[in-house]
Amino acid sequence: MPLKYTPKPTVLPTEEFDALTDTTTLRAAMKGFGTDEQAIINVLCARSNSQRQQISAKYCEELGRDLLRDLKSELSGNLENVILGLMLPPLNYQCLQLFKAMDGFGTNERTLIEILCSQSSEQLQQITKLYEELYNRPLVEHVCSETSGDFRRLLTLLLTTSRDPPSAVDQDLADQQAKLLFEAGEASWGTEESTFSKILTKSSFEHLEVLFEAYKKLTQRSIEQALKAELSGKFYEALSAIVEYVRSPPRFFAKRLYEAMRGLGTDDATLTRIVVCRSEIDLQNVKQEFERMYSKTLENAVKSETSGDYGRTLCALIGKS
């Protein structure tokens, strides 16, 4: 991933960790009449994913019970979604989100774009392998069955093509590719979409940064302006997502958090997914970018758009601003 910044998580491993104590606390919170949701939140939001896996194993070892099953039986709605999301290993959680985006009637293309366009080749290979193990279906085949046209071809390239290594930054090649993109888009009648797909899915993120600057130097227009002028639909959204992520991962996710809370109603699925996924990666950076971009803290924005235990859980993961 681009490393122009130092990733800062909001959730860190707790130092005085005792899986047995946490097991006892969680069982007490769910045993008998009623559920102590706050106790569950206090434990699970203050542990790293690795520690949560240890808790889950200890819970089974000591009590002979499945922690995820118990949590699922005691919780519901958005609170259930975020807590169960915390309990899954990160790759499993991303696979689940991809499956949900394509399962049933209709496809959530925005989820596919958010996840698939913001991964390194290594991460995509791991997701692809695990997805088939979990759902007995190749991810690329599932994606192809749910998408079409240039958008489908782009996602297929992302899933089947390995990006060049981060060290493969070549100014001469970037200059050549900038010319190719210009000729495939603004300089021609019509657009050669395949040229954009091949270059933006094969080059390393680091090389793409150099390429975007080369394009601006050649054409006096940003790559963002070129994409907007030449492309449309989900294909445009996906390529724009790659560019946005290369420019700044924190800004990429801050923008999507803002969009999830903008307007009438809240996209709780996106809000949950980003907070869960980025909490142990760079959510601190995302928070800072969110406040810079929108002049309000992420915590306050979430508080105004959510309520109850669900909102408290998200705010616990986000941390104090």
From TrEMBL:
Superkingdom of origin: Eukaryota
Pfam family, one: Annexin
UniProt entry keywords in alphabetical sequence: Annexin, Calcium, Calcium/phospholipid-binding, Repeat
InterPro entries for the chain: Annexin (IPR001464), Annexin_repeat (IPR018502), Annexin_repeat_CS (IPR018252), Annexin_sf (IPR037104)
UniProt free text on domains: A pair of annexin repeats may form one binding site for calcium and phospholipid.
Protein family (similarity comment): Belongs to the annexin family.
Annotated protein name in UniProt: Annexin
Taxonomic lineage: Eukaryota, Metazoa, Ecdysozoa, Arthropoda, Hexapoda
